[in-house]
Amino acid sequence: MSVEVGNQAPQFTLLNQYGKEVSLSDYKGKYVVLYFYPKDMTPGCTTEACDFRDAKESFSELDAVIIGVSPDPVESHQKFIDKHDLPFMLLADEDHKVAEDYDVWKFKKNFGKEYYGIERSTFIIDKEGNLQKEFRKVKVDGHVEEALEFIRENK
How far apart (Å, rounded) are the C-alpha atoms in residues 110 and 133? Predict the structure, then answer.
């Protein structure tokens, strides 16, 4: 399945930080800010998560939920949430199938190492489950405000 703005967002069911199954369809009737990040507890991912945390109330006022996804296991997500007081769900995509469905599982090169991993990306999904906006190759600084502004302007 390919991901394309204007089309139905790829459906999924993953485990959250409590080991409970969560499906995208559970949030029909709300905006979903689905953000993919590389790894719990790393500097950029921590900054991004804390930025989303600090803006959660603003997203809630727009009837939007925030959901983070990474290949980390459930236990890692729980520690990340506890350490940084994150008020939203983190989903474990250990086999990176959902990341592949959203085309964010990419070949990367870093300091001479080559590997596959998450390309930091955010998807805004409307109340009917359609992909409304995609932010790819996200730079953390200012990104959360950019996502918030998009929902404000396109409600």
Answer: 28
Residue 111: pLDDT band with limits 50, 70, 90: confident
For helices 143-154 and 43-54, the axis angle rounded to 10 degrees is: 40
Element (DSSP H or E) covering residue 46: helix 43-54
Q: Tell me whether residue 45 is one of the annotated catalytic residues.
A: yes
144 closest CA partner among 91, 94, 93, 86:
86
Ramachandran class of 96: left when φ > 0, alpha when ψ lies in -120 to 50, beta otherwise: left
- The answer to whether 121 and 136 have CB atoms below 8 angstroms apart is yes
Could you say which of 9, 45, 89, 124 is catalytic? 45
Residue 147's nearest CA partner among 40, 25, 65 is: 65
Question: Is the pLDDT assigned to residue 1 strictly greater than 60?
Answer: no
Q: Which distant-in-sequence residues (6+ apart) come within 8 Å of 45 by Cβ?
A: 37, 38, 39, 70
Beta bridge partners of 23: 13
Over residues 31-85, the pLDDT tens digits come to: 999 999 999 999 999 999 999 999 999 999 999 999 999 999 999 999 999 999 9
pLDDT at 110: 81
